[in-house]
From TrEMBL, chain A:
Membership in a protein family: Belongs to the UPF0229 family.
Superkingdom of source: Bacteria
Database matches in InterPro entries: UPF0229
Record region (Disordered): 58-110
Name of the featured protein: UPF0229 protein GGQ99_002785
A UniProt-annotated Pfam family: DUF444
UniProtKB/TrEMBL annotation, chain B:
SpoVR protein-like N-terminal domain location: 16-442
Transmembrane parts of this sequence: none
UniProt protein name: Spore cortex formation protein SpoVR/YcgB (Stage V sporulation)
Pfam family, one: SpoVR_C
InterPro entries: Spore_V_R (IPR007390), SpoVR-like_C (IPR057008), SpoVR_N (IPR056174), Ycgb-like (IPR057270)
Matching PANTHER family: STAGE V SPORULATION PROTEIN R
UniProt domain SpoVR-like C-terminal: residue ranges: 446-499
Lineage summary: Bacteria, Pseudomonadati, Pseudomonadota, Alphaproteobacteria, Hyphomicrobiales
Length: 438, 518
């Protein structure tokens, strides 16, 4: 009889520490892969588990290895069919895979896949954007639950004993099992005492005394056997975790897609949208995204069209705002939805339209929106020139009025990915608790 | 068939396993192993684990306890990916050369498979571990688990104290030198964990005892003395060095001018582990062959005795033939000679030669052909050989014909491969000796030695690679590894490649020329 040990219940993930060390090691590669993924993937899936291929070079473990085709070597192989001694076989063309060395033909090109959890993805994603840790923590926080009363249960901890229900049960049981009451016993005891006190008890009295004694003893035994509170009477309050009711949110992505918006501009805009979406998703149970693109006219489109298809035309920003207004009126009544809007543009607009935009925002949109963010994507060379908020494009100048008027309107210029974060800083600073939590 | 007993003798009937069936099967196997095969083994400890735990065990090179390092995480990811995609099945078992001998069984296995695995690992491998001279000489089965426990906690302590990055830097470098971290000709001193721990405790206590905060307040007048101290220390070390030294990790541990005590200790740990696995590298064919032969023989005996059913036997045979499947060289599945097949075939062949030899066998193996005692012959072979000598001694012409082995020569300068020998009268000897060469670690491992280090002067370390048969090293990994050596040595490291026949210098490279790693 050997020593059998069942290890199946031992903790798993013994190699979790190794995994973390490996992640740290492959960080740069992973970050690059995730940024690529965010660039090409859908906004809504940006924070899900990701399968990331890693090229092996960043994580090689070198040792002294024999060069595969150098010098003289002689191998023994099985399964000869037609060869005779002295036969010559032409060497396959370089890289022709099958050779006589099975040992080290690995050319290291094949990537291997790595599945990252949501938390790991977010870590890597935010690292690039230089978010402070506090915000990262906030964004990753899961939905909280509130305990809600949900009846009673037989088990629980002593602090949640329901006294009322317990006594209720105990009472019923006592009646059903006919537990003698104290009053009954007292009555018999009093009678017994009275009879015993008699000077010359008659035979009938003596008999009565004997009966009373027996009865009393029976009652006392019954009382002992049927306890006042039995463990089966005890009930505990039951609590069920209930998600804190969160309101719905809708996020409007507005983007200028006229010719002046190139790949770089769209990429920056996309990153901004992704961040805003992550933020909203954390805060609200249900988030919708509406994509509105515009040139000289605006239309609601799906995500792919939004980012990848081009359309030529002029630039009339107000059309996008009107379209947004239309969608809100049709589908997202502001009493049911928290409305967030993010507009990305390079700042171009036809003359006189900017005033119109301001008036739309001022009169209606800003009253409906929780938050409106305008990001202007500029050239890195221009970022010097536009250091001061005073100079800017026509749209920028016009929006400054709105910004002065409404605290929930934020505007920034973005030239590189690391500029994106400050916009969020404003979001947190200006509207500390836009969502009603619990 | 007629000598098979009734079904009442069956050890188990269901294909699901339970611990009662397991221990009944174990006892039946043990009876055959002891009485008929005369095996001698360490006490067994059999542990049932899940597939995730098996993957965990895989990634830490099969040890139940291992320190943490990113490369294990990498292997884990790699293996679990292969497994999930169905490209690789998990081993049904994992066995550890320790006393007691630990065997892991996967919970997914059927009862038939568990029986097979117990016969294979808990008796086959176990016997080999206990009796083979290499294992006896180089490993200390009784102490390895305790030593790993020590290694794990020591490295964890180092991480706490010096930061994971510093520890990782040392481990990375040490791992890259693992193949160059074994003594091949010297008996490694016995591991004793108690002694090991006492040594370290003593060192720490000494530090604590001699530490006095007052020293800090003394004026720094001793500066002139300090270098002299270093000087004497270095010259002591210099005189202690013995050249050449092929155990590079040992060399660095003892003589590196820059390493701190804890870093040397880590090198030592890596070195001890490399040494522990050294016999396994040399006995793959024999070890697997022995285990496969044992399970094959035992399962057949169980069947003959009526202890397992036909259904079970069919399942066993199917798994067995998967294990010993050998695709031909031109098959897309071909990935070298299967050590299970080669070992198993050779041992079955020895059994055949002992019992029913042909004239050819009597000619080739006069010592044991027809001696009738195949069991004794095998026990002796298992105990006294490694792959290289085993093949050189026991590979028979009959088996060369069966497996249709041929040898193929590759000369870097020629545009063709040449078939140098096939399974014919002229070829047997050559096929056999080439095959043996290919299992000789002395031949397959590059010959690299430390030949000079000037501790008192410029502290340059010189390494010599003796090039046999013109086989050079891959340049990129060579340079990376040299950088790692430099990290441990702290000063310039140069490497020279010398051809063993012509004595010509083929290449010379120094870490100075390599530049900083980007």
């Amino acid at each position: 009889m050997p020593n059998f040990i069942d290890r199946r219940l031992n903790p798993k993930d013994k190699s979790l520490g190794n995994r973390q060390r490996f992640l740290r090691r492959a960080r740069d590669e992973l970050k690059r892969a995730i940024n690529d993924r965010v660039r090409s993937g859908k906004i809504e899936t940006a924070d899900q588990d990701q399968i990331i291929p890693i090229p092996r070079k960043g994580i090689s473990e070198p040792t002294f290895q024999r060069a595969p085709h150098s010098g003289h070597r002689e191998d023994v192989l099985p399964g000869n069919k037609t060869f005779g001694t002295g036969d010559r076989i032409p060497r396959p063309a370089a890289g022709g895979g099958k050779g006589s060395d099975p040992s080290s033909s690995g050319d290291g090109a094949d990537d291997f896949q790595f599945v990252l959890s949501r938390g790991e993805v977010l870590d890597l994603f935010f690292e690039d954007l230089e978010l402070p840790d506090l915000v990262k923590h906030n964004l990753k926080e899961v939905v909280t639950f509130r305990p809600r009363r949900a009846g009673f249960t037989m088990s629980g901890n002593p602090t949640s004993i329901s006294v009322g229900r317990t006594m209720f049960n105990s009472f019923g049981r006592r009646i059903a099992l006919r537990r003698p009451k104290q009053a009954e016993i007292d009555e018999l005891a009093a009678e017994l005492k009275k009879l015993e006190g008699e000077r010359r008890p008659s035979a009938a009295t003596q008999q009565r005394i004997a009966v009373l004694r027996v009865d009393l003893a029976t009652l006392a035994r019954r009382r002992k056997l049927i306890p006042y509170i039995d463990p089966i009477d005890i009930r505990f309050n039951r609590f069920e975790p209930q998600p804190v009711p969160n309101a719905n949110a809708v996020m409007f992505c507005l983007m200028d897609v006229s010719g002046s918006m190139g790949e770089r501009e769209k990429d920056l805009a996309k990153r901004f949208f992704v961040l805003l979406h992550l933020f909203l998703k954390r805060r609200y149970e249900k988030t919708d995204i509406v994509f509105i693109r515009h040139t000289h006219e605006a239309s609601e489109v799906d995500e792919d069209t939004f980012f990848y298809s081009t359309q030529s035309g002029g630039t009339v920003v107000s059309t996008a705002l009107e379209e947004m207004l239309r969608v809100i009126r049709e589908r997202y009544p502001s009493k049911d939805w928290n409305i967030y809007a993010a507009q990305a543009s390079d700042g171009d607009n036809i003359p006189n339209d900017s005033e119109r935009c301001v008036s739309i925002l001022d009169k209606t949109l800003m009253r409906l929106c929780q938050y409106y963010a305008y990001v202007e994507i500029i050239d890195e060379r221009e970022s010097e020139m536009f250091r001061h908020a005073d100079n800017g494009t026509s749209l920028w100048n016009a929006y400054r009025e709105v910004s002065a008027e409404w605290p929930n309107f934020a505007m920034t210029r973005i030239a590189k990915p690391s500029d994106i974060y400050p916009v969020f800083h404003e979001l947190f600073a200006k509207a500390p608790a836009p969502a009603k939590r619990g | 068939m007629e000598n098979r007993a009734k079904s009442s003798q069956l050890l188990f009937t269901s294909s699901d396993w339970n611990f009662d069936d397991l221990s009944r099967a174990y006892d039946a196997i043990k009876e055959i192993a002891v009485d008929e095969l005369r095996l001698d083994f360490y006490p067994n400890q059999i542990e049932v684990i899940s597939s995730e735990q098996m993957l965990d065990a895989y990634s830490s090179i099969g040890m139940p306890l291992m320190y943490q390092h990113w490369s294990f995480g990498k292997h884990f990811v790699h293996e679990s990916n292969l497994y999930r995609k169905g490209r690789m099945g998990l081993a049904y078992e994992l066995v550890i050369n320790s006393n007691p001998c630990i065997t892991y069984l996967m919970e997914e296995n059927t009862m038939a498979l568990q029986t097979l695995v117990i016969a294979h690992a808990s008796f086959g491998h176990n016997h080999f571990f206990k009796n083979n001279y290499l294992f006896q000489q180089w490993t200390d089965a009784g102490a390895i688990l305790a030593y790993m426990e020590f290694a794990k906690s020591y490295i964890a302590r180092c991480e706490e104290r010096y930061g994971p990055a510093a520890v990782e830097a040392v481990l990375d470098a040490a791992h890259s030198l693992m193949p160059q971290a074994v003594f091949r000709y010297r008996r490694r001193p016995r591991l004793s964990v108690e002694r090991e721990q006492a040594r370290i405790r003593e060192r720490l206590e000494h530090e604590e005892r001699t530490f006095s905060d007052l020293w800090r307040t003394l004026p720094q007048a001793t500066e002139a003395e300090a270098p002299r101290e270093v000087e004497t220390d270095m010259s002591e070390r210099q005189s202690a060095i013995e050249y050449p030294e092929e155990n590079l990790l040992y060399f660095l541990e003892k003589y590196s001018p820059v390493l701190k005590a804890w870093q040397r200790e880590i090198l030592r740990i890596v070195r001890v582990i490399a040494q522990y696995f050294y016999p396994q590298r040399q006995t793959k064919v024999m070890n697997e062959g022995c285990a496969t032969f044992v399970h094959y023989t035992i399962m057949n005996r169980l069947f003959d005795k009526g202890q397992i059913s036909e259904g079970t036997m069919l399942e066993v045979l199917q798994n067995h033939s998967n294990v010993v499947f050998q695709p031909s060289f031109d098959d897309p599945r071909y990935g070298g000679l299967n050590p299970y097949t080669l070992g198993f075939n050779m041992m079955r062949d020895i059994q055949r030669i002992c019992t029913t030899p042909t004239a050819e066998d009597r000619d080739w193996f006069p010592d044991f052909a027809g001696n009738g005692d195949w069991c004794g012959t095998l026990l002796d072979a298992w105990a006294t050989h490694r792959d290289e000598s085993f093949i050189r001694q026991f590979l028979s012409p009959a088996l060369i014909r069966d497996m249709r082995l041929f040898s193929l020569q590759e000369e870097a300068s020629d545009p063709y491969y040449e078939v140098t020998a096939i399974h014919d009268e002229r070829g047997y000897e050559r096929v056999r000796s080439r095959l043996a060469d290919n299992y000789d670690v002395g031949v397959t491992q590059p010959d690299i030695q430390a030949i000079d280090a000037d501790l008192k002067g410029d502290r340059k370390l010189r390494i010599k690679h003796t090039v046999h048969h013109g086989t050079t090293l891959q340049e990129d990994t060579r340079n990376e590894t040299l950088r790692y050596i430099q990290r441990l040595w702290g000063h310039e490291v140069s490497m020279v490649g010398i051809d063993d026949t012509t004595d010509k210098t083929l290449y010379e490279i120094s870490t100075k020329d390599l530049g900083e790693k980007t």
